[in-house]
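Researcher: Batch entry, complex prediction.
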Amino acid sequence: MFLKGLAAAGAVSVASWAGLFSVPAFAQQAKKEQKHCILLWLTGAPSQFETWDPKPGTLSGGPFKAIGTNVPGVQISSLMPRCATIMDKLCVIRSMSTKPSEHFQGINLLNRGAEPRQPFVRPVLGSVLAQQLGHLDSPIPNFILLDPCPEGNEFREFKAGNMAGWLGAQYGPVRAGGTYGIPDIRRQADLTTTDQQDREALRKFLVRKYENDHQSAAANSQNAAFERVKGLMSCASLFDLNRLSEADKARYGPGTFGIHSLLARNLVENGAPFVMVANGMPWDCHILNHETHQMLVPELDRVIYHLVNDLEDRGLLEKTLVIAMGEFGRSPNLNASHGRDHYPTAWSLAMAGCGLKRGVVVGATDPQGYAPIEKPFNEKNLFATIFKALGIDPYAEYDLPNMPTFHRVEENSPAIAEILA
Amino acid sequence: MKAEQASIIKLPSTVLGMDVSADASSLYAACMDGGVYQVEVKSGQASKLYRHSSFASGACAVPGSPTIISAGYDGTLVWYDLGENKEIRRVAAHEFWSWQSDVSRDGKYFASVTGQYLAGGPKYEPAPETEPSVKVFDAGTGKLVHAFSHVPSVQAVAFSPDGKYVAAGNLMGETRVWDLSTGKQLAACKTTSLTSWGIIKVHAYQGGVYSLAFSPDSQSIIVCGMGQMRDPNTGNGRQTWQRFAWRKEGSPRTAEIHAGDAGGGHPEAIAFHPSGKYFVMAGRLAQGKWNTGFFDEPGGDLIHSLDTKARLTRIRFNPDGSRMFLAGGVAQPKAKDGNYPDFGRILVYDIA
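Model: Structure tokens for the complex:
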């Protein structure tokens, strides 16, 4: 696993948030005010019918039943019995309605919050939150992407792309998880700390000089990457899966998505502002949809249940926004392969925490799940809601010299008032 | 040989299980809408007998009895008396789906297999079963006779023609064989060829044994499924059958589909022709020329093939082997005014 054993190998390690800051008083203040976001990114697009918007007794409903929850009148799929017991802590949107029906476009839209406008690259949610919620002197990366499965077709393309966009490389993600490691992060055994610092000072001087002489964005990115590696070396223990408690791993696991969701909880506890957890592109069930969802949804159910409860137990839920969503939903009609295809017209997602109303279901779809019958919401409504929940002005203008005017959320699109407290 | 389509029977939703009456005048279809239908072959008329509360996955006509037994994704088994036109009993057999079911040729036993695939390890190895995955019932009384252990999900089951054994195959490509008189497990036929661990999109297991059949002499077992894929969600693994000499030490694999014969797709059904001279494998085609292949016995050569343009889930023959019935469905069309056009299919072929 990534960074495994790094602390034991001699790198500086930390065991707490305060240990990451040179001034303890600042650490306490930052911790008090820090808001966080954990995005459970369900790449491939889960079926709303097998999660939050069941349609039992219909031909689009599939084989799973609907079960009651602890919110009167609200039912979810029988594959989510644990979430049914904490429905009063969740809010569900059943009328998401977006445009792109292909993964790459959908992943970009639901991560960036607006359609592309070439050649400008809008930063993804993680990068915006890294800039808005992060602390420059925190060695914990401000944008962490945990992804135990490094592949994922279109998701791999997305990960390889420019996530930070016009905010710049310093707000890009640090990717970790599973067997996806970062090589050469350890200090060489024959290199003293002093020598390493001297070399770093020289490197920094030369790169900065090159950057100034040549106006080089690449040099700027290199400096950002080195800064990030330095931070990683100092907080490597927080990424060590072996340091997670066995009891916690038993609750969240045993699958890697669950274990990395637990890691996300630990990172947030230690100050990380934004952690995105993905696991390849497992939800893209064009064949045997129900046979695949029988395994994936119970894991998601377990993860959401423990994550929300743990954050609440630790006093973190009120300042941590948990989002579970994919890039669209899945079709009401089964294809000839017994799969469900891409469906952006009407789909569902769930959120919790950060002051959002609890036990609320917003929007509804028709009896077969073809279309919203009330309150359709798009990506802009969603991003406005996320930013508001996190105390960020959704409509602020970006300061982008020599570029058109861009806002965090375009067109003054309203937030979803029904779930904002 | 020749296989000419005689008729196409349409049903409201995909047919997941099917059997044929002793005189081959009626078919019994278990469908995705939960309904169990009786279908008159000649007219194509279908009437719903009763329903399960989830998908109906199996329907078996009990030899020598006016009874059918159905199974469903609701985990229940239903005994239905065709003479009296009434339900005899309903048995809660499993906590999860009945994936597949079968009745022994002597009419003594009915078997149903279950199991939910849940993550049991970091690589999404299947967790152990929480209930017996294979259950054998007295087909007459509904009494549980055997409860056998396996690794979920157990997706295929078949009795031997001589009625002495039952075999069940799972997600991980393991087919276990039990002696019905003693309840002892006699063999475990293992293959990794039918199970994919998704590298591209999903770090989990998919596929496995989707159907199996004993050879006419009960000495070997043929299993079928989809060959390994880096991305199981494409569903284009090699159409595969493999034969195991289950009675020999170590239950070795002795044959498999010939290299040039297979395209890509998902075989979900396999059955021997009553003559014992060939067997048929059918399913869904992704790439290639056929979704229904006829293979001579014991050579395994592809001797005929069809592309039926439908997903096929079950194969049955009439007693003299002159007719073949292929059950399945096509893509679910969009509902009009709240009603779906029929997308279940039973394809009737005359065999010569």
